[in-house]
Design brief:
The protein is mainly alpha-helical and 151 residues long. The protein has one domain. Helix content is 76%, strand content 0%. The radius of gyration is 32 Å and the shape is rod-shaped. The protein starts with 9 loop residues before the first helix and ends with a helix.
Length: 151
């Protein structure tokens, strides 16, 4: 019988019991229906605006206003670039970049999650191995003690 008793960390027990997966965007939606809808709608709009196709459409829309900006009395080319073109086009391009960064971050998080699961499994196997060794050592000790001459 081993003198050591393994006491797993509470989080380890919870992980073994639930076998959760990494948190995804949809997992953080609130339980309240209106908040859930607003979050869903915001993600859908972000997904739509955060495409290069949307950036191309915004660039075309901005170019429609270019002739008016260049006319005498118009806002001028610098103002048009700063207030119209950059704001419309860069909005989508920035979101595209953020989506790419978020996707790579999600992939790293997924890999970290898998690594943690593997380490947890290995640690549990080490505990089993140590328990088996303890039992074998105790059996050897009992056997050796039985072979000793009686005092």
């Amino acid at each position: 019988m081993s003198q050591y008793v393994h006491t797993p960390h509470p989080h380890t027990l919870e992980r073994l019991e639930h076998k959760d997966r990494p948190v995804k965007t949809k997992d953080v939606y609130s339980e309240k229906a209106t908040t859930r809808f607003n979050a869903w709608l915001a993600v859908k709009i972000t997904d739509g605006v955060g495409t290069m196709w949307c950036a191309y459409v915004f660039a075309a829309i901005a170019l429609v206003g270019l002739p008016a900006a260049l006319k005498p009395g118009g806002e001028g080319i610098i103002a048009w670039i700063a207030q119209t073109f950059l704001q419309l086009v860069l909005l989508s391009i920035i979101i595209v970049g953020q989506n790419i960064a978020a996707a790579s971050s999600d992939k790293r998080a997924e890999n970290t999650f898998k690594d943690a699961e593997a380490i947890l499994s290995e640690a549990m196997e080490i505990q089993k191995h140590l328990q088996a060794q303890d039992e074998e050592l105790m059996a050897l000790l009992k056997d050796a003690m039985a072979k000793l001459p009686a005092a």
